[in-house]
Write a structure and sequence with these properties.
The chain is of the alpha+beta class and 266 residues long. Helices cover 67% and strands 7% of the residues. The protein contains seven helices and four strands; from the N terminus they run E-H-E-H-E-E-H-H-H-H-H.
């Protein structure tokens, strides 16, 4: 089986070039046999690719873009489905190829098979049947795990154990009462500690909040100061411009006055 990757060697799209390089580079890293089919220089490849991409996989305009991947005549998918399979360690399944032994995908497949069949592979023989070589105790196979003597001995032990159980029950009740009292004392000691921790956490939160408010106020004050400085600079520039304009007007008036006086003198 040969994997066919349909590419456009002279594509003007940087995104398409990157996707094509990603697919080809990953297949080479996996040492998968594949063939590159150029649709830019070969009209036959272009028509074959468009005709064999399933209709439901085509975009809205009906023209699939490279890269498109096939296993012989079977359609595998485009770049997006290839990328999803790569992220899920399912590239071989995506390509329709058996995963090599020891690969992540092969391990996942073995686990899935174990879960599906409910048995471990090492417990089955080559034909898939349970291995009869696993030893099973004779008692478990026959169902006669206990003899009559063992049953009688168990009955005697039960009788002897009844008296001891009563004593143990009384002792256990006393121990339980002591444990409950100890737990109540411990709970009483833990409650103030928890209250102290809660108060400390509240104080920390209050301090953090106050610190944050101080920082905000400081930032606002800095912003106000910057605005005032900027406004002062603008006012100073405006004043200087006005003074320069007044000086120019005054100079022009003086020049006009001198010209008038000279004309009158003549």
């Amino acid at each position: 089986m040969v994997i066919k990757v349909f590419l456009a060697s002279s594509s003007g799209s940087t995104a398409i070039k990157k996707k094509q390089q990603d697919v080809v580079g990953f297949l080479e890293a996996l040492k998968v046999d594949y063939a590159q089919l150029d649709i830019a220089c070969n009209e036959e490849n272009r028509m074959w690719m468009r005709q064999n991409v399933p209709e439901e996989k085509k975009p809205a305009n009906g023209i699939p873009l490279p890269p498109q991947i096939f296993n012989e005549e079977s359609y595998c998918g485009d770049y997006d489905t290839f990328f999803d399979a790569k992220e899920d360690n399912l590239v071989y399944s995506f390509l329709g190829l058996p995963p090599p032994p020891g690969s992540k995908e092969a391990v996942q497949a073995d686990k899935a098979d174990i879960v599906e069949n409910g048995t471990h592979a090492e417990e089955t023989n080559a034909e898939g049947n349970l291995d009869d070589s696993i030893e099973v105790p004779v008692e478990e196979r026959n169902g006669d795990a206990h003899s009559k003597e063992e049953l009688a001995q168990a009955a005697d032990e039960e009788d002897e154990g009844e008296g001891g159980e009563e004593e143990e029950g009384e002792v256990a009740e006393g121990e339980t009462a002591d444990d409950e009292a100890t737990e109540e004392e411990t709970a009483g000691d833990e409650a103030p500690a928890e209250e102290e921790e809660a108060v400390e956490e509240t104080d920390e939160v209050t301090e953090d909040t106050a610190h944050a408010e101080e920082e905000e106020e400081q930032e606002e004050a800095d912003d106000d100061r910057e605005e005032e400085d900027l406004q002062s600079e603008e006012e100073e520039e405006l004043r200087q411009l006005e003074e320069e304009e007044e000086a120019e007007v005054q100079e022009e008036e003086e020049e006009d006055l001198e010209e008038t006086q000279e004309e009158e003198a003549e």
